[in-house]
Amino acid sequence: MWWNAWASMRMDKDQRWWSFEWNFADSVRSQMNLPEKIIIKDDTLREGEETPGTYFTIDEKVEIAKLLEEMGIPEIEVGYAAGIKEHADTFKALKRDGIKMMLSSHARLYAEDIKREVDDIISAGADHINFLLVPGPVLKTKNAVFERIVEGIEYAKSQDVTVAFGSGRVIPRYWKKFLALAMEAGVDRIVVYDGNGCAHPSAFKDNVEFTKNIVGDIPIEVHTHNDLGLATATTLAGVEGGAEIVDVVFNGLGDRAGNAATEEVIMALEILYGIDLNLKLDKIMEVSQLIEKYSKTPLQPHKSIVGKNCFIHESDLHVEQILIGNWTTWELFQPHVVGQNRKLIFGATTLQDRALKAKLNKIGLTPTAEQLDTLRKQIKEKIKTQDFISERELEELAKKTLK
Ligand SMILES: [Zn+2]
C-alpha cells in the first residue's frame, strides 16, 4: 500500500529518531566533504552574554560550564581575558573549579600591544587563543595588518598555547594572503566567520572548501550569525565544506538575532548526517533551561528542540497517532532524547473522533456515538473558559460521562 513508503524512512538503531532517507542518497552525500570528526565548541559564555540585556555572573558561568562539561562538550569560548577583568577572573574561577574543557579566549589582533594581549590571556589561564581581525585604528595599512598577523601568532605560539586566526569578515581579496601568513606563523586553526549573517549557506560552504584547499590539514572552525534566520543552515553548510569545529551558542543567543543554536546544530548533525557526537543529548533541556534562566531571555514556545511546544500535541490525528504508539508520524525524535516531555492536550482541534476514541480505548472505555457526542459538548463548554483540557481532566470527564 502507498503508506508502506513511510516505512522507508531511515530509523536510528536505538529508535531515538528517524531521518529522511534521501539525506543519505549518494547524489546528496557525494556533494559533501564531511570531516571525520566534529568538535562542538560552545560560545554561550562569550557570545551568549552579548545578547542585549544579558549578563552572567562568574558563579553562573561556572555553573553553566560545569553542565556543558557533563554533557560532553569539549571546548568553550569564555570571553576576552585581556580586555575585560571579569572575563580573566572567569577563566581563573573555571580552572579553580577543575573544569577540564579547552578554554578559549578571544584576542584582539588590533591591540596596541599584542604581546601584552597574549600575556594577559595566558596568565588568566586560557588554553587557546582566538585571534580576531577586525578593522581598527591601530592597524592603518595593509602591511601593518600582514605584520600583525605574523607577530601575534608567532608570539602566542612561543608561549605554549594553541592559536586560531580568523577575520571578522572574509575579505576575498586578502583571504589567501592572510591564510598564507597565518600558516607560516604556525597557526593551529582557522576560523571562518559569517559575523553578519550575510553569507548564503552555499557560498559559505564554498568559502570553507576554498579555505580548506589552501590550509590542508589545519582544522577549520565556523562561526555564523542568524540575521536571516539561517545561522544553523550556514553552520551545517560549513561542515559540509569540511569544517571540523562548530562555534555555537545555546538557545541561539548572541547579539542582534543571535547565533547558530548549539542544540539545533547538535541534533541536525546527529539526525540529518548520522554523525555520532558522543554527547549526553538528554542533558540538552537542562542546559537550555539553566541558560534561559541566567540569560533572562525567555525562549519562544515553538523554539526548535527546546521550546515548550515541541512535544505538545493537540490536533486530532496527531494525538491519535501518539496514543497508538506511532510517534514517527508527527515527531522527528523522541522527547526523552533531549530531556523533554511529551504532553497531549485536548482542545478545539481535538474534537473529531480519532483522538478521543484512542484516548478512551487506552483507558478501557468504548464509547457509543452518543456518548462521544456528549463528551465533545462537555469539552467544548470547558474550553470556553480554559485553553485546553489535559489528559487527566479528559479521563475524569469520560469516566463520569460513560458511567
Ligand atoms: Zn559572533
Provide the descriptors you would attach to this structure in a database record.
single chain, alpha/beta, TIM Barrel, 2 domains, 14 helices, elongated, binds zinc ion
Shape: elongated
Strand residue content: 5-15%
What's the number of extended β-strand segments? 13
What is the structural class? alpha/beta
Low-confidence stretches at least 5 residues in length (pLDDT < 50)?
none
Summed up, the domain count is 2
In the CATH hierarchy, the architecture of the largest domain is Alpha-Beta Barrel
Total number of helices? 14
Q: Give the helices and strands as they follow along the chain.
A: EEHEHEHEHEHEHEHEHEHHEHEHHEH
- End-to-end separation in angstroms reads 40 Å
Average pLDDT, rounded to a whole number, is 94
Structure description:
The protein has helices at residues 26-29, 58-71, 85-96, 114-124, 142-158, 172-184, 201-215, 231-240, 262-273, 284-295, 316-323, 353-362, 369-382, 391-401; strands spanning 10-11, 18-19, 39-42, 75-79, 102-108, 128-133, 162-167, 189-194, 220-224, 245-248, 312-313, 343-346, 389-390. With 403 residues, it is an alpha/beta fold. It folds into two domains: 18-295, Aldolase class I (TIM Barrel); 312-401, no CATH class. The chain has an eight-stranded parallel barrel with strand order 3-4-5-6-7-8-9-10, surrounded by eight helices. α3 links the parallel β4 and β5 (102-108). α11 (316-323) packs parallel to α12 (353-362). The longest helix is centred in the middle third of the chain and has 17 residues, at 142-158. The protein is elongated. It starts with 9 loop residues before the first strand and ends with a helix. Bound molecules: zinc ion.
